[in-house]
Amino acid sequence: MFARKSDSGDPRPQSAVSGGVGVAGLIGLASWIMVARQYGMDGPYSALTACLCCAMPMVIWSLLHDKVHLRASTGIDWKNPKALKRTFDISVVKIAGLWVTWAIIASIYCIGRWYWTGQYQFAMEMMMAAAPFLLGLSVPYVLWLDRYFAEPRDGAWHFGQFVMGLGSRKAGAEYDPEQIYHHLRAWAVKGFFLAFMISIVPGGFGEIIRLDIAQIIRDPVAIAHWLIIAMFVVDVQFATVGYLLTMKPLDAHIRTANPYLAGWVAALICYPPFILMDGPLNYHVNTADWTHWFAGHQALLAIWGAVLVILTAVYAWATVAFGLRFSNLTHRGILTHGPYRFTKHPAYVAKNAYWWLATMPFLVTSDSFTDMVRNTVMIAAVSGVYYWRAKTEEKHLLSDPAYKEYAEWMDRNAPIPRAINWIKVKIGWWPPADKGADKAAPEIQPAE
Fold it and tell me: Which of 146, 172, 336, 350 is the most exposed place for a label (fewest CB within 10 A)?
């Protein structure tokens, strides 16, 4: 219905990540899962080892095949290193800025009670174990890398200047507040989400390792259930790697963190301890999932389960496509490949469709019309939150001409944006009133 005539003169913009990166990570992750299943290694340390086995092939592919370390976006000039004595003072200030930043994050971890209960305890144990190595390795790493940066005075350096009192705006502005704000926002993202990701790494991984395939092979519901868990394991593993490897030599650093308060609010209310889906936006009151309502109808169970598996696979695919770069609230390069060829927000589309189909909030076990209406409205509000997230992310990314080019290409070529634009044309919403009537809608060719 929304087909578009092929136009070889309108090529898709280049993606910041190649498709091979995600494939390499999947091979590494699958290899470790097979080893862990063979030897019954279902514990949390085995789950973290899976992250390593997922990350290393992606790092190798990125460096040897994609040669990401040579990209101009890294800000690194490997051919013209500076003498250590020229960058030593800069590096010292930068290290000070990093250490103070980490001290602030550690203080927040200590103060937040939720970090010391439940699944978060494992994350805190890992953080404490890693801290001495992180502190020790940061010194040679910064001293080494600063020699190759075209401009080593980044946000960490500006924050270090501020902390050490080496700069004064009245005396010549030795530090830039905007650089400091960017530095703190980037580390706030990493500190908040990395703890969460590490905390959920062991759960699904352990279930996959303990799975007895022989017991589920004839049950379509069980097969769907375990395939969905497997997709979420892939998502969590890749996302955790993304938060761990925000490094410039891999071109996976944070270019910018979302500067808009609305973007932070929309994202944080989807995660503990701020999550609203377990409180005001809880849509599970007196509900039962799809397996309850379709019980006894094997064909329908198989079909519905397959749809949910496909949606979860799309969700996981959207994370795999990031390779080393997955992160909320950040710009780490524009993706145009994988599921991002079809919609700008494949994970949000797939996730929300999954929730609607899996929960079916318009059916309730209490036979209460009120429960049905409330649950339906609540899940609609949840979908609204994700629409809000998508819009705040687009507002952030549109500051990059590369994203603007991608968004315009999607409007001309991608099925979902074109379908939305077609609907807007039909109901008279295109062009937007504030854009002027001279703005033509994209050329949309209905299928024959």
Answer: 172
- The answer for residues whose C-beta is within 8 angstroms of residue 66's C-beta and 6 or more apart is 18, 20, 21
- Asked if residue 166 lies in contact with residue 174, where contact means CB atoms within 8 angstroms, the answer is yes
- Measured CA to CA in angstroms, residue 79 lies from 82, 90, 150, 445 at distances of 10, 20, 11, 51
CB 142 within 8 A of CB 249: no
Rg over CA atoms, the chain: 24
pTM: 0.92
Beta bridge partners of 76: 149
Going residue by residue through the chain (448 aa), what tens digit of pLDDT does each one get?
Answer: 333 444 457 899 999 999 999 999 999 999 999 999 999 999 999 999 999 999 999 999 999 999 999 999 999 999 999 999 999 999 999 999 999 999 999 999 999 999 999 999 999 999 999 999 999 999 999 999 999 999 999 999 999 999 988 644 544 458 999 999 999 999 999 999 999 999 999 999 999 999 999 989 989 999 999 999 999 999 999 999 999 999 999 999 999 999 999 999 999 999 999 999 999 999 999 999 999 999 999 999 999 999 999 999 999 999 999 999 999 999 999 999 999 999 999 999 999 999 999 999 999 999 999 999 999 999 999 999 999 999 999 999 999 999 999 999 999 999 888 888 888 787 877 665 444 443 333 333 333 3
Of 178, 195, 320, nearest in space to 257 by CA: 178
| DSSP state at residue 76 | B
Q: Rounded CA gap, 253 and 246, in Å? A: 4
Please provide the size of the chain in residues: 448
Q: Which residues pair with 330 in a beta bridge?
A: 257
